[in-house]
Amino acid sequence: MSEFLRILEDEVQIVALAFMATVYTIRLIWMFRFKAGKEITSPVGSPRVGAAYSMMNVAMPWAMESARKNLSFYVQFVIFHLGVLVAITATLILPYWPEFFEAEPIVRIFQLFMGAAFAVGLIRLIRRITSPVMRLISTPDDYFSVALLTAWFAAGVFAMPNQYEVSEWPLILFFGMTTLFLIYVPFSKISHYLYYPFTRYFLGKTMGHRGVFPRKKGGEKPAGLE
Amino acid sequence: MSDKTINISDVVNLPLDLKEQKKALEQKSSAVVEGKVKVYDPNKDNVKNLLEMLKNKLSRQTVSSLVGCVHCGMCSDSCHYALARPHDPTMTPAYKADQIRQIFKRYIDWTGRIFPWWVHAKTPKNDEDLNRLKNIVFGTCSGCRRCTLNCPMGVDTAVLVRLTRGLLTELGIVPEGVFVVDKDSWETGNQMGVSQEDYIETLEWQEEEVQAELDDPSFKISIDKEDCDFMYTVNPREIKYDPRSIGYACKIFHMAGESWTMPSFGWDQTNFGLFSGDDKLGGYIAKNLYEAAKRLRAKRIVISECGHGYRSSRWEGYNWAKYKQDIPSESVLITLIRYINQGRIKVDPSRNPLPITYHDSCNLARSGDLTEEPRWILERICTDFREMYPNRSDNFCCTGGGGALSMVEYKPLRMEVAKIKADQLKATGAKLVCTSCHNCVDGLSDLIKHYKLDMQVVQILDLVAEALVIPEKDKEK
Fold this sequence. Notes:
The structure holds 2 protein chains of 2 kinds.
Chain A: H1 3-9, H2 11-32, H3 47-56, H4 65-68, H5 71-96, H6 104-130, H7 132-137, H8 140-159, H9 169-184, H10 192-209
Helix pairs in contact in A: 2-9, 3-10, 5-6, 5-8, 6-8, 8-9
Chain B: H1 8-12, H2 19-26, H3 30-33, H4 46-57, H5 60-68, H6 80-84, H7 93-107, H8 110-114, H9 127-139, H10 146-149, H11 157-170, H12 176-188, H13 196-214, E1 230-233, H14 236-240, H15 244-255, E2 260-261, H16 273-276, H17 279-295, E3 301-303, H18 307-321, E4 329-331, H19 332-341, E5 356-359, H20 362-365, H21 372-381, E6 385-386, H22 411-417, H23 419-428, E7 432-435, H24 438-450, E8 456-459, H25 460-467, H26 471-476
Parallel strand pairs in B: 1-2, 1-3, 3-4, 5-6, 5-7, 7-8
Helix pairs in contact in B: 4-11, 7-11, 9-11, 13-15, 15-25, 17-18, 19-21, 21-25
């Protein structure tokens, strides 16, 4: 392995990660500077249960009509985000435990996840370009973020065999994009995962307090029967 | 009924109508003179003022909704405006929320301040842009929160729309109807400008009606009686257009042997502050109610049938008024359940034989906690109850929510998007649609007329009053 690739996989990634963590920390401090809205009414339900329900919504496609009615979109969402998880895992394993990728089945599993996420990324990009609704609400950041991730998955598929002795270019491309990704993420919509726990927590806490979350399906005991 | 689709640019370019504002200035309206209601001033830097107010009004919750949207577009499938107008992408909730989000990004958020074009961040250029913003947030969203509950990220678009409405209200850039109702609320303590004389007279009239019906001169609607079990609060619409609903409620309380009263002031459980986004007005109206209950040493506040009234009085009002809740408040639905369950009133479901469906008010089902309560009652007071689909917190808005009924300029669009609700109603085959909200009564009545549906709107209290078994009277029959 060339010294260039070694530094790119190790030191450069650490610096990029540190940069991302720093920006994220500043971002959270910024957000917490805004005053918190307070609920001072007596509760009907539990804010904690509501918050937990809200946070778990992502794993409950039956709980939201938007997921129930668009199950294929939900499946795409799962594949895409699993792809992100697998690709991030790969960037952490490759530099420090390269033997892990000597087993071909493991390489194939990682490639499968990232390949599927790449396909979903393409579908998402096409949807964003062709749907009038998506075109209207999309910003250059939205297009770039999806395109960047989609390309990153493709790079990941080629980098996975970790055969730098054959050619270093797939790895240079993958880690180069990872660096760009880490630096760009805090300024882009990709950072939504940083906000996700907060938006869902705030909504869930209020809705839990008011007894709206967990959402009722029918058959629950009405108030007044005490 | 016409299938014509509204040209959306006709809606978003509706001019700012200032007739009522000028009239209020000429008449030296106290709310205007005291600065409680703002009038539009073209000589002020309204854009700058909006930006300053935005900065001050942001909370952690609203900021998380402003930064959290990923533009996935899932919200378009949940909005009745977007579903009824699939050809019109501007109906997408994310687009509507983006109108304030792009201002936030340009003025407050960091990426938008440095690279505005990259995230479509921009500030309004002039008052014309603010007027367009007004037409979008007041005219194309009823704040029903259906998109909120269907957002994978938990972005509360309805709260962002309300935030924007509040900013524009502070600048006097509002629909005429909103200005008038805000002004009336400040000046009379109720949103329909009902005078105290009219209120008292209406209660006396209803008292006589019930006395005659029950043949019981001892029946009283007591006003300002202290130390009662509860204080009953109503919607001004009941005083003005539907006083019999007060009579029904009071008759039921009487039959249940209840100790209750109504306040002479602080009786309006509705709150236009919810719709205009004016927290100060919201706090003022809600505080009137809470202080009336305190003054009368009532043990509870009971809120008559109204979605936004319940949401405002039970939930938001305490927060707006920063008033620590000292006594319980409940919907009259819960009071009715208690009566029926404890056998304090007897009901005969065979008196309501027509097929009935139930419309969940957005404010009761998505912003409140009442979905099973009306159904529990309906199952006991009618013989043919049919669910509407989707229902409960997935139900569609009556299309009259968010103060839409007071903004006549947007009615053609409202009627067009009401097709979603009309189809939902039609599919039930019911002859009566029951709701527990006065606002929904008017919203549904409008669309039933527009779409020529063979259906009537009723409320739970109407049906309970019909099913109520009055021993002496029934013996006579």
